[in-house]
Amino acid sequence: MFSEEIEIARISATSTLSSAKKSYNAENLIDETSASWVEGEDGSGLGTKIIIEFKTQVILSEFYIKNGCGDFEYFYANNRVKKLSCTFSNKANGIILLEDKPGFQKVQFSKPVKTNRIELTIEEVYRGEKFDETAIAEISFKDWSKLDHTKMNESIFMNGINDLYEIYKKT
Known about the structure:
By secondary structure, this protein is an all-beta fold. The chain has strands spanning 8-13, 37-38, 49-67, 79-88, 93-97, 104-126, 134-140, 156-165. A hairpin with a 4-residue loop joins strand 4 (79-88) and strand 5.
């Protein structure tokens, strides 16, 4: 459920594919276009992180990920994320399992999380047919009905964060 407009202060990644022809930077994840972020590690990018910082503390119960390359022509050519670990600023964490299908996938939490930061780490991928680079097209914190991509008749796949844990530092 989206009760407020969530504003992103900064998005970054620990690795980005470098290309003279195209930009694959982390900002592509929130630009609402078919442009994609692609990791730039040797191999499939396991361990690569995407860090999203919000302008203020927010309460999240869900968000959306458009897995793989946003340009459908390259969706199966590149790796797609199969499993992400997710860590929040309040130390809650969980695992996100994504399907190997184009379009947005809803990630719904077992309970709302109060956070000002999310760190997503690539843990496992679906192998690409041509390239050993992992892509994600979009991450959105908007209500599904407000996403521009609904005009493209994209379906939505329901995913949940498995085993959302609260971890507290002992003082």
